[in-house]
Amino acid sequence: MSVCKENANIRDNHRRQLAEKFELRRNLYKALCKDTSLPGELREENRYKLSKLPRNSSFTRIRNRCIFSGRGRAVYETFRMSRIVFRALANKGMINGVKKASW
């Protein structure tokens, strides 16, 4: 794996940790912003607090990446590996419970 792909995996892992850390706070601020029964000043204050949270603490910034190659596209979520690595390991019989289809 190249250094660039390795750094992408490290960045993504950091984003996952931040998202987990700020999840409750972010959800609270979002709920208070959307609640129309609250006064506008309170909603605006919570909107400001939400904007001050780290950008990488949002779940939308998380990308499923291959744990072997760092590839960000065509990643099987259940195995956390790209289609290319999955095929190579499955052909070698290194993934338990996976065998080539035949009918």
UniProtKB/TrEMBL annotation:
A cellular-component GO term for this protein: mitochondrion
Question: What is the first-listed, main subcellular location in coarse terms?
Answer: mitochondrion
MF term (GO), any: structural constituent of ribosome
Output the InterPro entries linked to this UniProt entry.
Answer: Ribosomal_uS14, Ribosomal_uS14_CS
Q: What GO biological process terms does the UniProt entry carry, in alphabetical order?
A: translation
Q: Where do the TM regions start and end? A: none
Alphabetical UniProt keywords? Mitochondrion, Ribonucleoprotein, Ribosomal protein
Report the superkingdom from the record: Eukaryota
What does the UniProt entry say about where the protein is found? Mitochondrion
Q: Which NCBIfam families match?
A: PRK08881.1
What family does this chain come from, according to its entry? Belongs to the universal ribosomal protein uS14 family.
Specify the protein name: Small ribosomal subunit protein uS14m
- Please report the organism this UniProt entry assigns to the protein: Rubus argutus
